[in-house]
Design goal:
Elements lengths: L1 H15 L2 H7 L16 H8 L4 E5 L2 E10 L3 H17 L5 H10 L3 E9 L5 E6 L29 E3 L1
Antiparallel strand pairs: 1-2, 2-3, 3-4, 4-5
Helix pairs in contact: 2-4, 2-5
């Protein structure tokens, strides 16, 4: 009778175990944010990031806002799933108490970019609107003039022009 109870408990752990393994394997995929640069065709952005959440015209220029979750490479997702699966086997599923909440927290980072386009539908300007993107970090912009004193970092979201 004792053997049946232990077997039932172990079976429950194995059936419930693997939740973090599944979560790790199905995390969002890493996107190529290097496409957010001047000169990138609009079609390339849509192919990588999907349809923008907002489109419109501002100051006579077409603009779009892209919002997505930056995920992980396939190698990183596979390694995490294998490590968590191995931990499940060696701990009879007890490791799920730790690994499932970890996977819930490590589900990628929200990224938001505003893009304006030129007349050829190529990127003209990029503004990083990501929450907590560090608006104090210097933007990658062309100086407004050739005056070297005019290159102080902006107090606005990160802009690439």
């Amino acid at each position: 009778m004792k053997f049946i109870k232990i077997g039932a408990i172990a079976s429950i752990f194995f059936l419930l175990g693997g939740c973090s393994v599944y979560m790790a394997a199905h995390q969002p995929t890493k996107k190529d944010v290097s496409l957010f640069r001047v000169g990138t065709p609009r079609d390339a952005l849509i192919a990588e990031f999907g349809v923008p959440v907002t489109s419109g015209v501002k100051d006579g220029k077409k603009y779009e806002i892209y919002r997505f979750t930056q995920g992980y490479t396939e190698g990183a997702k596979t390694a995490r799933a294998l490590a968590e699966g191995t931990a499940d086997v060696f701990t009879l599923g007890v490791s799920e108490v730790v690994t499932t909440p970890v996977e819930s927290l490590a589900d990628g980072n929200l990224m938001v970019y505003e893009v304006t386009y030129d007349s050829n539908d190529c990127v003209d300007q990029v503004t990083n609107l990501t929450p907590g993107a560090g608006n104090a970090s210097p933007a990658q912009t062309a100086p407004a003039s050739n005056n070297p004193q005019a290159t102080s970092p902006p107090a606005q979201p990160t802009v690439q022009k």
